Fold F-box domain-containing protein.
Amino acid sequence: MASSSLPPSLERLSLSFPSPQFPSLTPEMEDGEYSSWSELPTELTSSILQRLGAIEVLENAQKVCTSWRRVSKDPAMWRKIVMHNVEDLGYNLDIMYRHAVDRSQGGLVEIEIWDFGTDSLVNYIAYSSGNLRSLKLVKCYLVTDEGFTEALVKLPLFEELEVSYGSLSRESLKSVAQSCPNLKTLKLNHKGIKLFSDDDALAIAATMNGLRHLQLFGNNLTDDGLNAILDNCPNLEHLDLLQCFNVNIVGDLENRCSESIKVLRRPNDSIHDYPY
């Protein structure tokens, strides 16, 4: 490629992507036919932009050239949205999230909200995204039980929920069960913030019978709670109990887990890959 109009920060990002993830070069590209970023095929431009975060696309990449702006407005680009709170850069994340959701034109299926989030935003996402299947809230302390519950009833296809280090209570857990009958994956990570108990394990067992993947990092459940989950969640295949030190997976309980659980992470297993 002879020249580049890409901002240096984006150029570094794009060049850092592992080359095997890029589509194969066409003969024209290998021969150097494309002399600028604006001449790249649409599918390659889309591949590049999808590897950038939502903030990078909205604030930088779409301003590179007309063709990049056109691709950045394609609803298919916004089926998954990941946005972290970038400190000291002055972004209005509420507006940016809503803009990104609007660009999906109802096609959003997966969204991650890190270090930011309000009841109003979560409800806007739910109202605008009836096809949403996966929601990840990390350190979203301003999302309340009431706002979360109000949003859930708008998501009939919802299948996967992760709440890590937030302020949601067990009442919200009950709302998940009531509003999301198709839920397959539940991840609750509250170590150091809020400890759950067997009451919550019993709520999961009684109402979330279709679960296949359950993560309870740092949970305060006991053997009784785990047995209740195993009794009532027959489809459970992946169980993550890292840092759940009140559970003793030995004897009969170990045999039960071995019989039904394909992937089991025990309380004392390594947390080297834990992302928080």
Remarks:
- Residues 8-73 form one domain.
- The longest strand covers residues 80-84.
